[in-house]
């Protein structure tokens, strides 16, 4: 979608960058010229993703980090700055999730997911944001939302609540850091093909046939479409967009809005 070289000379950090939507965004950033650091928990998965990303010819580094661990996040950002001297873009795509009845969630189960999704996003966002402010060259930050954060997720109350926090964090920082020309946005996908959410969390893509028919556009989002929208928000082409939650769900969360008037 964007011209080649859109991100030349830029450095991007993508948490959760070795799979799913995170990898698709990292791929698009590399294809458009950015050096990319991918962050994840599993080194073998990071190595495999890095091999694929290097096909695009930019520098790719891997960082085995648990985003909940503040000290590791700080050390990783320090390493990146020692290597490159700058970070221009951050994508928070690391997530953890499972289905459970709310009444059955243990305190630790709630905490594990909230700490990955909300604290993890905060950890990277604050540490990278501090660097961007100090450097004085602006930057852009993108997090991944979920439509469940707006309409509810009865079997994923932990993840859904944390993602709602990510949206509020984004709106807050969009205003707070505007004076530093740091733009902060969320890309909120609906059900997306080839993601962990669809392949294991909600029981496999075959389970979705009926629900897909309820999506106004009658299909799931592709990872490429999610990545295209994401790199647009990260790029200078979106230079006046901040604190925004871009919902890309084929009209799913509006699906019932027609009601008796719309048929
Ligand atoms: C109930 C569970 C559970 C499950 C873990 N727990 N899995 N409880 N059902 N299926 C409980 C454990 O019993 C434990 O509580 C606590 O959660 C922590 O478990 P750990 O395994 O020690 O945690 P950890 O190793 O930190 O793993 C984090 C994880 C893990 C979130 C639990 O499943 C994970 O990282 N999954 C892979 C990532 C992922 O899910 N990606 C897809 C995201 S899709 P106790 O009390 O026993 O100690 C997505 C889309 C959002 O986010 C949109 C959808 C609404």
Automatic annotation (TrEMBL):
It holds the Pfam family adh_short_C2. Keywords: NADP, Oxidoreductase. SUPFAM superfamilies: NAD(P)-binding Rossmann-fold domains. InterPro entries: DECR2-like, NAD(P)-bd_dom_sf, SDR_fam. This is SDR family oxidoreductase. It comes from Ornithinimicrobium faecis. The lineage of its organism: Bacteria, Bacillati, Actinomycetota, Actinomycetes, Micrococcales.
């Amino acid at each position: 979608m964007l011209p080649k070289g859109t991100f030349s000379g830029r450095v991007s950090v993508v948490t959760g960058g070795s799979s799913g939507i995170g990898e698709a965004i990292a791929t698009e950033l590399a294809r458009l010229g950015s050096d990319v650091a991918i962050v994840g928990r599993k080194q073998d998965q990071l190595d495999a993703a890095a091999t694929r990303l290097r096909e695009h010819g930019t520098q790719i580094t891997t960082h085995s980090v648990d985003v909940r661990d503040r000290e590791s996040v700080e050390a990783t950002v320090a390493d990146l700055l020692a290597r490159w001297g700058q970070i221009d873009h951050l994508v928070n795509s690391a997530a953890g999730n499972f289905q459970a009845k709310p009444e059955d969630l243990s305190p630790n189960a709630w905490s594990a997911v909230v700490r990955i999704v909300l604290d993890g996003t905060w950890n990277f966002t604050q540490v990278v944001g501090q660097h961007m402010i100090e450097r004085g060259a602006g930057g852009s930050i993108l997090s991944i939302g979920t439509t469940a954060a707006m309409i509810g997720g009865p079997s994923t109350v932990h993840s859904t609540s944390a993602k709602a926090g990510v949206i509020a964090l984004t709106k807050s920082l969009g205003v707070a850091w505007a004076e530093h020309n740091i733009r902060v946005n969320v890309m909120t996908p609906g059900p997306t093909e080839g993601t962990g959410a669809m392949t294991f969390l909600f029981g496999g893509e075959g389970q979705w046939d009926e629900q897909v028919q309820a999506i106004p556009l009658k299909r799931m989002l592709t990872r490429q479409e999610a990545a295209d929208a994401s790199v647009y928000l990260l790029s200078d082409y979106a230079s006046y967009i901040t604190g925004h939650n871009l919902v890309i769900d084929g009209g799913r969360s509006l699906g019932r809005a027609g009601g008796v008037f719309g048929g």
